[in-house]
Amino acid sequence: MKYLILLLSLTFISCNTYKKKCEYFHNGKFKYISNDGYNWKVSRNDTLQIEENLDTGELIKGSILWKNPCEYELTFIEFNNLNNNQLLGTKLKVKIIDIKGKSYKYETRRAGILLENWVTKIK
Asked: Alpha-carbon distance 86 to 103, whole Å?
């Protein structure tokens, strides 16, 4: 019985620590390389995310609704590339699934395809 209580306590502490680590990524400036090889810069606060493709100049703006410390919903609200306007209002559910130092790995689904990538906080 003592071991069960100890195990449950450690699990609770571990989950809370992970959630606090996720909160580190709620705000700031980030960078990542997309799966198709483009360099992106991201600025995020509690409710807005702006992504800039450093190779093409494409801009994407999205509103953020945090569901819990490690999951948020991103709704596309503006593009500077008219080819993407059909995505306006589209919602992506994003989940932080791993953290290493100043980087996190996320997963999301777009058009039924699972996407995973690493993002690094730079500020």
From this structure: 31
> In 1-123, which residue ranges form alpha helices assigned H by DSSP?
2-23
Q: Which residues are within 8 A (CB) of 9 and not within 5 positions of it... i.e. 6 or more apart?
A: none
Please tell me the predicted confidence (pLDDT) of residue 2.
Answer: 55
Which CATH topology does 2-121 take?
Answer: Lipocalin (2.40.128)
Task: For the chain, list residues with pLDDT below 70.
Answer: 1-19
Q: How far, in Å, CA of 39 to CA of 29, rounded?
A: 14
Every domain of the chain and the residues it spans: 2-121
Residue 74 CA to residue 42 CA, distance in Å, equals 13
The pTM of the full predicted model, rounded to 2 decimals, is 0.81
Alpha-carbon distance of 111 to 108, in angstroms, equals 10
Q: What is the dihedral angle through the alpha carbons of 64, 22, 38, 61, rounded to the nearest 10 degrees?
A: 10
Q: Which residues of 20-51 are buried (b: 16+ CB within 10 A; e: fewer)?
A: eebeebeeeebebeeeeeeebebebeeeebeb
